[in-house]
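Comment thread on ticket #2218

A.B. wrote:
> Attaching the input chain for the structure job we discussed in standup.
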Amino acid sequence: MPLPRPKPYCTPNLPVPDLLSSKPLLFSTLSSPSHALLVDRAITLLKFHPNHLDSLSSNFTPQSASSFLLKSQFDQTLTLKFLNWAQNHPFFDSHCKCLSLHILTRFKLYKTAQTLAQNLALSAGDHTGSSIFQCLRDSYHVCNSTSAVFDLMVKSYSHLNMIDQALNTIDLAKSSGFMPGVLSYNAVLDAIVRSRGSAKLSAEELYRKMIRSRVSPNVYTFNILIRRFCRVGELEKGLDCFGEMERNGCLPNVVTYNTLIDAYCKLGRIDEAFGLLKSMSRKGMQPNLISYNVIINGLCRQGRMKEANEILEDMVFKGFTPDEVTFNTILNGYCKEGNFHQALVVHAEMVRNGVSPSVVTYTALINSMCKARNLNRAMELFEQMLSRGLRPNERTYTTLIDGFSRQGLMNQAFRVLNEMTASGFSPSVVTYNTFIHGHCVLGKMEAALGVVQEMLEKGLAPDVVSYSTIISGFCRYQELDRAFQMKQEMVEKGVLPDAVTYSSLIQGLCEMRRLSEACDLFQEMSGIGLPPDEFTYTTLINAYCVEGDLNKALHLHDEMIRKGFLPDVVTYSVLINGLNKQARTREAKRLLFKLFYEESVPNDVTYDSLIENCSNIEFKSVVALIKGFCMKGLMHEADRVFESMVKRNHKPGEAVYNVIIHGHCRGGNLRKAFNLYKEMVHSGFVPHTVTVITLIKALFKEGMDEEMSEAISETLRSCRLNEAELAKVLVEINHKEGNMEAVLNVLTDMAKDGLLPNSGKNAYAGE
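C.D. wrote:
> Ran it. Output below, let me know if you need it in another format.
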């Protein structure tokens, strides 16, 4: 929209340091005969012999260059040729650059103009932006310019995070009768948001200033503000901004929706993210690939892999092609839940679809194999990554070092470290922490302390993980005095202990039968605002059980529930063992089965209500109940909990099926185990490797050949990896020949290599 002709500039005494030549440059001097002759010769050479233009460079001055620009300002080709030649010469000063900005902006060559404007901002030595503005203002009319040149300058300052200069330029433009547009304000808003609080003016203050200046915000303005609120976790303010946007008649775009969907997902509010995604279609706005990737990422973070795959299928059905981000997100989700087989399936599909696995892909797979303690497979993937020409990053190396360290293979860990440093990466605090953990696992506490000393010598400050790992190691080897010394040292160095630090010390005291001191530490922990976790409670419950004080143990159990913690199978096992030792077997059973005895726990919290509300925590309490019963062989009670889930319309998940099938196999009720297995497969779940192998072994021992064959066939059918083909053939041949020992050996090897479905660490009853 054309802006009004600027008023006469009335702000007196603007400083002009370093920008213009020491002698004032008057436009009347640009047309002197000597300049005119030189300009004409340069124009001729540029048109007919451009390679000979260098012969004139020694004759050019800032004045003659300015004269050339003014004479050729309406010839785009000639101007661009001259700029390409002149801009690296010393005569092409700040005044020439200002003239060039007017001309380029009028030609709407904004990208070239912005590059030049950023160069001007960095080289002019103008710390307020006032000198550059004056030069642009003074040359405005002679170049027949537009106010877009000031927007361009503000945008260039903003890209360089020169926020003060950008804001000053806006103010100077307004005081000179120019009206900076929404482009200027958006550029500065974006710079302020990117500065993450370091700017003098907040994004909200600039927005209010913009409104007072009667500049109407557009969709990009609102998107920047919404992004700012969502980034700092203020989703409600982002939603208020979204509402204001719609009230002002400004239609949201797909970026607006994606920002809010991502914010919902990061806060774990997936259902609301889904609702927003659906509302897009109702309002005629089509989601894009990023919309789907954001939702898939949110679901994968919560371990809701089945729903993530459903969204993926819907996305493909609607014509979107999964990209590297999509595949990496799904793959990483499977890795986090320990389903290494499915992660490898995704990797194979990725390659099949022409999407090249990246360093991120391989690092996720390597990490999953390290967690599964399958280091051979991890190294195979590492070598495969190198063979594809991919360069490992710091995280890749640290992942491998951690994998070796956790198994106490320190020589191999140091070899990877040497390769890491040879590749130009410096070990981080995280890398050193893996070595500390490895030494502690081996009981080499002095070596662990040596790593801390090495960190300090290299200028790295040990963090809470470094200290807590060493404290845990001292506690494990019953060197409590040194553990408490280390706690004191970390506090003196400004590193505050966390829940893990306290839990380790409490466990150490409990193992030494120093329960009174453990309770004091528990109170200290609560006093400084560190909430105990399930591990802390279970440690103290176990200590009270060992001391025979079951009442205090049960009191802590009730306190756990009151504070929103769900006792896990370890907690239940501790209490059951404690009660059984005192011949309180009926009470032990009643403890786990309060749901069916309809007993209340403090504050009207019941296990019934826990199970009713456990959809958000993926039935953690139900899995713990069933697993507790299965471990004690109480399969009748386990079945009753399972049946109660079905009656309440809570569909059992993979973890529940794996636990109860494994339990019935151990209990000898193979018909029940096999029926549950078929039900599980029919429901679309893939049984865990341990579950399948346990079931096949049990069916073989009982002579249930038909059922065993069905289980083997189903297992092989679910193996979709090319790498598994040879193993599948071996299984089929040995099965036909009745060589079941060989079948089970091959299946076990396939599980170790991640070639069977769910070859990870899902919840299942004891291995």
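A.B. wrote:
> Thanks. Noting for the ticket: The mean pLDDT is 81.
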